[in-house]
Amino acid sequence: MSPRQPITLYDVPCKLDPPAWSPNVWRTRFILNFKELPYVTQWVHYTDIQRVLPSAGVPPTRTSKPLYSVPAIIDIVEGEAPVMLADSPLIADYLEQTYPERSIYPGGRDAHLQCVEKVIQHVNNKIAFMVIPHVERILEGGDREYYLSTREMKFGVPLGKMFPVEKQEAMWADLMTSLTELSAYIDGIRKGEKWLFGTTDDPSYADFVLGGALIWFKLGGPEGGWDKLRAWHEGRWERHLENLESYMQIS
């Protein structure tokens, strides 16, 4: 099965070229590129998301007090009603079920999601407070103000206390320890030389989740942070991003 027309992928831009930076949207973009599904990116500023997505029929990611977020997709399949979805895990499951060729869940979905949880635990959760206070430098205007104010509200921590000078050395050490643990886990399950979580030939959803997190850190993390991280573990994390370049097209 293939889409009747290109899938619409909603993403929020930054001021860099190319403008894709969101780790969660990168998860979806990697899947679309990997499965060779035609799509077009609809860029939506943070300040417009709460208006644009409901107008397009995309459901909220939080229903109690409706909140709309990216990534979101609209997929029109011949003979079926249009599918509107938001939230990267839901989108991943939908794309896998609807377009199963080249699976993103080697070994089965439930087993593979254990790898995804390892990535989130050892990478995303560790770098979040290192990145969030610095993302402002790649955003502009209303997007910048919206992002900073909502992050403080979401995490309940002032931006200045997320990565304070007096805690930076300890946070870097904690990240190193966490990535060392993840590296050991990968060595215990790895099936090939190229991909950390995939098969011998193809990457997997966990590879994409890790790739999105590394892009986020590289573009929005602390100054000089990527130069430090990419040298760790004999360049394993930098090589991972290099291997994913084949799936980094922005349509």
Automatic annotation (TrEMBL):
SUPFAM superfamilies named in the record: GST C-terminal domain-like (SSF47616), Thioredoxin-like (SSF52833)
Family annotation (InterPro entries): Glutathione-S-Trfase_C_sf, Glutathione_S-Trfase_N, GST_UstS-like_C, Thioredoxin-like_sf
UniProt protein name: Uncharacterized protein
Coiled-coil parts of chain: none
Annotated ranges, domain Glutathione S-transferase UstS-like C-terminal: 118-247
GST N-terminal domain boundaries: 21-97
